[in-house]
Amino acid sequence: MEERNTINFMRLLSDKSTGSTLSLNSNDYYQTEIFNQLPSIHAQLSHGQLSRDRESTVPLRNLVMCMQGKRDARDRRMRQMSDIGFQEPRRWKQSVNRKREGSYMRGAIAGLLPWQHILHTIEGRFGVGVKAYFVFLRYLIFLNLLHCALVWGFILGPTMIYGRSNDSEPLKFGGNDSVLDFFLGTGYLDRSPVFFGYYTRGSLNFPCLNTPLLYVTGIFTIFILSLIMVVRRTTVGYKHTWMLGKHYSTNVSNKIFYGWDFTIQYPAAATLKHSFIRNDLKLFLYEQTFSMRKAQWTLGRHMRLYLLRFILNLLVLSLLGGAFCLIYFATIISQSNGQTSDPYQFPLVSLLLQYLPPITMTFANLVLPLIFRKISSFEDYSPTIQDNATLVRSIFLKLASLGIYLYFVITTTSQHRENLLGREMYKLCIFNFLITFSTTFLMNYPRKLVQQKYPSSLLGRLSWEQHFLVPLNVLELVYIQTVHWVGVYYCPLLPLIGTVILVVTIYIKKVGWSISYGATMIY
Fold this sequence. Notes:
Blueprint: H1 27-30, H2 33-37, E1 45-46, E2 49-50, H3 67-83, H4 87-112, H5 116-126, H6 128-162, H7 181-184, H8 211-247, H9 252-257, H10 267-295, H11 299-340, H12 347-354, H13 356-377, H14 383-411, H15 417-453, H16 458-462, E3 468-469, H17 470-487, H18 494-515, E4 521-522
Parallel strand pairs: 3-4
Antiparallel strand pairs: 1-2
Helix pairs in contact: 5-6, 6-8, 6-17, 6-18, 11-13, 11-14, 13-14, 14-17, 15-17, 15-18
């Protein structure tokens, strides 16, 4: 019987390799480039050693390191306590306890915030990117609630307490009032505290304290406070984006090893996250290839490309001009119908004509960004610049269309402009909410049912895959909040109306995603 030839593997260990942990003076590890680029490292390098000042006061459970590293940190703290006097360990323990209690308190307060369970569920199913949309939506709700408190304190509260002028008519629902007034902002709603014309000088009529002065002060406070909060939130977001963009955005190893979102629990969301990481790597490689190809362009190629971009930008300006012309004609038709016809004779026709400007603006805001995206693909930009160009053009379209619409309303109206502008902003808010509801339950949900039950049918094949574009949806929230800011002077209760609409929007979006957007989300 032949003996089998066996090979014995033996690991050779030196005296320096018997330990399984790294010492404090292991500069070969800490000074590597990869260690400096790790986004989860909270330590700092100082002459080849880690700075222990901040680490000594942070609770062990908050340190981002392995279990062996936490044991070493605990041992180092015990050695530090044995090397110093009696009072220093006591102060150190008190500092650690205070930080731990503060961390527990912040976690408890965060758990008491509204819709925290909904946000946690969305984060678990669709990841942090989609959760950020809902966090921003909740932030706008809190901002509008703050505006409601200011409106009550400066405008509505004093008017309710001190009353209106003696010649003001009592507010009653009757006569020619109907339910249609709640959609058009006319009749009963036009005489209510919703609009500017309700607030007149009452018994509060002192030289330095009267209703008009409180009204202007309240609106000015809303604008100043909104500006401060928006600047603060933008500054914090820009700081985080700048730090990540400067150090980690172009590091492929971070995209591969640290790009996974461990909060995802839903299998479909995990598949989408896989696709997102894969597409992110493809985008990074395409950006590098595009830069190399661009470096080889000749002068003639640059001139032809600049000419093509100039023509395409002229096309974009033409589309914007056409959209503004449509808004102008829609405003003329709507204003002429409101002044000449009786809205109660043909209610549906009158309602359609009164909402013609919001319908035109919504149609332009839905169609033109798709055309802008197609145009940017012919301009031979990198994918990132294409997305940014489409986003900038969409922002300009939304804000410019709102400004042009206000300008047309002011120029085509000669009297009672305050209530009229308030009604137009009110109708924009109502119509945006109706569009959100209709898009979720009357378009996305039936399309999802057709794709699931009849995937091979003609209608199922024509029903394209649903996408949720987070940047464009966030832009829609910015547009809605801009309408609230513009109309708060003419419609003081618009923040309250906007708060109700945004609260209902949270549940509409959650239910809509549960039944429709299980297909695809784009972060």
